[in-house]
Design brief:
Helix content: 40-55%
Distance between the termini: 56 Å
Strand order of the largest sheet: 10-9-11-8-7-12-13
Number of helices: 15
Strand content: 15-25%
Structural class: alpha/beta
Radius of gyration: 23 Å
Number of strands: 16
Largest sheet: 7 strands, parallel
Amino acid sequence: MNREYVEELCRKAAQAKFAVQECTAQKKNEVLEHAADLLTRETDNILAANAEDVTKAEADGMKPAMVDRLTLSKERIAQMAEGLREVAALPDPVGELLDDWTLANGLRIRKVRVPLGVIGIIYESRPNVTADAFALTFKSGNAVVLKGGSDAIRSNEAIIEILRRALEDLGVTKDAACLIDSTDRADTGVFLEQRQTVDVLIPRGSAGLISYVVRESKIPVIETGSGNCHIYVDADADLQKAIPIILNAKTQRTGVCNAAESLVVHESVKDAFLPMLSDAMHRAGVKLYADDRSRVLLPYAEAATEEDYGREYLDLMLSVKTVSSLEEAIEHINRYHTKHSDCIITENQASADLFQRLVDSACVYVNASTRFTDGFEFGFGAEIGISTQKLHARGPMGLKELTSYKYLLNGNGQVRA
């Protein structure tokens, strides 16, 4: 454990937040554009560092889907750089006037958007989070302290060095972006204690990591949930439309939180639909775990357990459940999902409306893949995570979700009677 190191890093970030808050929108955009250029220019160095992480992960037996999350390529680094440019192009939320009124005594009250301060982010495996988190926290006027997973330590070190260089090159303190470059888990525990210097903490990763942070943190937490995302094929579904949606949601990228993990099917379409599903999933290499009613029509499926319905596989696996009604489907989903993203496939508008009203998730879809739950896809440039809680922020968190507000009161001598 290196308590002094972690505490000092957080203190530096707490001092740096005031320098960030003094930056104009133009200055912040210049830093982000310069950082994007540097990431592109340093692609080979980033890839070399990432190759060390990937080689170690494979030697340690990491699952292929998780190795995919860890792996960078020229294309993915280009996407990271583009993400910084996208954020630079977005309106600066800081200082936005949210409300403005004057009391009868002449006292004027304005409600304005302000940065949160110092944002701590704990995340696993995905080194692109390092650049995304910096872009969003910096543009929204915050300093950031990052604690990435040990699997991506070399990649994160290479990326943060570039981001800190971009800050320094343009006259902003490099401590606006700090990385706890330690693989000691005890240092994570120390980080969770830094309530005096870190204003809010955001965990990004497995259900185990998120539960640990929520349970142990002394810092206020915005919870980003794991993704047991469901798709429900309704009695009035277009079955030809359903297969491509499910394939995309399940197989485009399996190791991500917005991938579909569970399928629910109305009994009136199961005889026609499940054989189609079986063929498509078998060709895609997806292993099915199904209830007894579904397995009759799924020759490659194994029996589902209670755990399967609530499990985030992050792999080529999918649970299947047959239900007798829309209401039963909604009840099943609300029981087993993680309040992330769920979808109904239907041509019945009334069913779609009921599903969207009663399914308790951050994002509820009709006839579209759950893979769209993403800050970039939503037009946020990037995201800090997908919040599955209801206080402060919910769903993909972009710039506005990384701010708070305060009241500015201007008078001319008023006193309260």
